[in-house]
Amino acid sequence: MVLFRRSVKMKLKIALVVVFCAIIAVFVWYYVNTGQNPMVEIKKKVGTFVKKYYNNGDEDKSYENNMTRPTVSATTRKLLGGKQTGKTNTEGTSGVLTNQHKSLPSSLSTLKGRPQVHALGHIALLNSHPSIPRMNALLASDAIDYTEGVLEHARRTFYREARPSNRTKEKFTVLFLHGIGLTSTIWINIGTFQILAELGYRALAVDLPGHGNSNDLSIPYKRDDILGYMTNLFTALDLHLPVMVSPSTGGEYAMPLLMAYPRILRGLVAIAPSDTQHYLISDYKKLSVPMLILFGEKDETMLHESSLDSLWYVPNRKIYMIKNTTHACYVDHPPTFHKLLIEFLHRVE
Questions:
Q1: Residues pairing with 173 in the sheet
Q2: Domain residue ranges of the chain, discontinuous segments joined by +
Q3: Is 327 a catalytic residue?
Q4: What is the pTM (predicted TM-score) of this model?
Q5: More exposed terminus of the chain, fewer Cβ within 10 Å: N or C?
Q6: Is 218 marked active-site?
């Protein structure tokens, strides 16, 4: 009987060791393939479950519809604290942008686009129609040529373009994608198109497949299909080393292109982009493209955290948190966004 009990205990110990080793193996596999800490993901899932089913009624009303505040990662805590980090950039040190809501410098205040006329967050996110005053300003300007159309060889993608009338003074191209619920019109409505065109840049924006005026019958979902679409888009728009601005779900189109052809871009402006978790940390460490990474202080989505955990490892990057803004920080406060964007464009010229 004693021997039987001992053998049962031994079998239980062996079983526990096997289970423990299996869990460790799964954690290692998850980390190697995603670059993410599995414990962080588990905490997020548990937090979401608890908030959803055990709400005690004292929750902040701003988190209705089961939206949960993400756990702040170590990377985000460093930025929120405004501390210097041990990592350095080839172009400077990352940190928090202070005094975000000051006016633009005098050299930028004379722009006809006048981004400082925007009140904080007054632009409707779901407005898919161009602002009439801003569109009229684009069409009436003698210094700007504005065109729009459909690209037949890129899944009938709708595009808008504003560029200097004097082509000899034209600089490089800035290609704007958009997030969910938005279209290319957002870059007209916040004044970006007019500002960049008056500064000599070719500003291009597209309605991604299934959005706005673009075809919704041929939406690429697989990564290879998205990559093929982006290469066709670059060919149709005659793009050579542009800077790409990729907010939110625009990352689903930007990241596959960047990882497949890391030298196709002059620079990338990543605004809490999606799809960053599908690549290894070693992939990000190999990137040489200059990158401007932006996120809103009050971003309640998990995209800013997950993207920071990945993009932190890009060697040539600068990171800014824009105070008092949400996920669409560039819409909430255009003056800060334009200031940072123009400084970045000057850096990559």
A1: 202
A2: 2-63, 76-348
A3: yes
A4: 0.67
A5: N
A6: no
